[in-house]
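User: My advisor, Dr. K., asked me to get a structural model of this assembly before our group meeting. I'm new to this, so sorry if the format is off. These are the inputs:
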Amino acid sequence: MIEVIRFILDGLFYGSILYLVASGLTLIFGVANILNLAHGAFYMLGAYVAAILIKLMIGTPYTVIAFPLAAVIVGLTGIAIERGFIKWIYEKDYTYQLLLTFGLSLVLSDAVRITFGTEPMYVTKLYAHAGAIDVLGNPYPVYNLIVIGLAFLIGCLLWLMMSKTRVGKVIRACALDREMSEGIGINTSRVFALAFFIGTALAGISGALVVPQSAAMLGIDADALIQSFIVIVIGGVGSMKGALIGSLIIGLIRAFGIALFPEIELAIAYLVMAIVLLVRPQGLFGREYRAA
Amino acid sequence: MKAKIGWTTNRLHSFAGITISLVALFCIPLLGSSYYDFLFSLALIYSMWALGYNFLLGYTGLLSFGHGAFFGLGAYTVAILVTKFSFKPFLPVIGIAVLATAFLGAVIGYLCVRYTEVYFALLTLAFSMFFYALVFKLYYWTGGSDGIGIRPPDLFGLRFSAIEYPAHYYYITLAFFLISVYIGWRIVNSPFGKALQAIRDNPLKAEAIGIPVRRYKWYAFIISTAYSGLAGALYAPLFGHVVPDLFHFLFAGEVLFATLLGGYTIFLGPIVGGIVFTVAKRYITAVTIYWPLVLGALLVAVTLFFPQGIVGTTYSLLRRKIGIKGGE
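Assistant: The format is fine. Below is the predicted structure of the whole assembly, which you can bring to the meeting.
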């Protein structure tokens, strides 16, 4: 029983990390209608930037600033990329959008490799520093709990922003109908840039949060991208609620899978995805989607 | 092979074009360099791969990130048959590899063609990464991250090796290439091929005039995976070694780029693209270790500035200069 609670907490932790990446991807897709294949690269960038910042600041009370700072740096990179490249292809065929973001993902990943080197960067000191707490008689790392709480908080803020503020309303208006929004005087180009900032910053904070628990290393970009794809297929493309539920499902599958069936852990996630596809092609929370 | 883009008013030109291309392709081993034999074998393999890929991208309008996995399946089928089962007759080995790939393509395709556009791309990417992970897990069969080193299979009772006799291997590849191009040309111009183009241009209309859209997309998927399987199967003996990276979506990005580079709106495009891409990659990787960076930058540049690719742009220029027809 105690083991089960541990698996559930682990699942929530993986799910939280995943939710942050996947919600960023979903936001960009929902607003700008661009499936950003470079999203994983932003996640990896966040991890490396955070690793560097934490290493610089470790021991000082400012270490926590490293996380939001990494997110902002990644978000600004996201805006730069959007303004420089992606901006030009909103009206183009989806093929070009995928090709462009794929090309950008190659460039970004390789740029990260060139800048930060091929050695993984560890900052496990911070993880150990957070210590462990007693959960029903079993020690559990506090850091994981902090991440779960933080992801919950960010999720709430995101929801509040989207549903209660003017900015959120404007973003949703753009997502629904770009031309009409422009017609009523919204600067949609700026809204898209904002969506890219928030979306990539979410990827960045996610990558940053994962660093103390594991490491900043090459290849995590593809993993993050694939996992968020599975999440949004299960949850429903473009649905923020779907991103949340999908992340939790995949997080829990991963936690239980690693512990109970390490050989086929990954296969279970794909199996769930395949079942969802066959039974409910639009995903659990997706809008009715006509599969031609 | 210029006839293959419907250059009906200029049959003489087309005939000359085909003849010159064929003679050039046949003459490559006469250069006497085993390096060129190897390079152009690889180029023809990429061409076949891209040609098959274009059934989906260019003719059906579906962008797949999963064709690395099918290439890898073809290559691994050959490698496993030759090393684990000591089953070496060349043609049956290739045949089994193509069939096995097409079968798995049918299974994956059945799930994927229910979707279009980005959803399709996303699914093919996810499934190919599933195979990528699987290759690491099935250590006994696949050798995990080491891959499999393979001894060359036999052809008509003769042992032949791409390393010892690269020119022989080149001609075998060329034979497969010519057959693939011919079959591809026939498919594209068959009623089935025209139906695919109708689906690409307007799926709703296509359905309305009675084309079974989803089934035809599925067929197109299976055909293109069979081409990927063939390319992979020919690749394995050429390299003598297969690795899991073949399954990675970054590798699928190479066929995507080759197709785009040549021009995916034209039958000839991916064929030219495959050859140009292979040769360019060899020379670029020789001078820089930043291959993904260069590839990505080129991809961005081609997407933004030359979306029609080499062949498409050439035709546009020719059309404007001397008013020739063709290129549609």
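One thing worth pointing out at the meeting: Chain B has a mean pLDDT of 84.

User: Perfect, thanks a lot.
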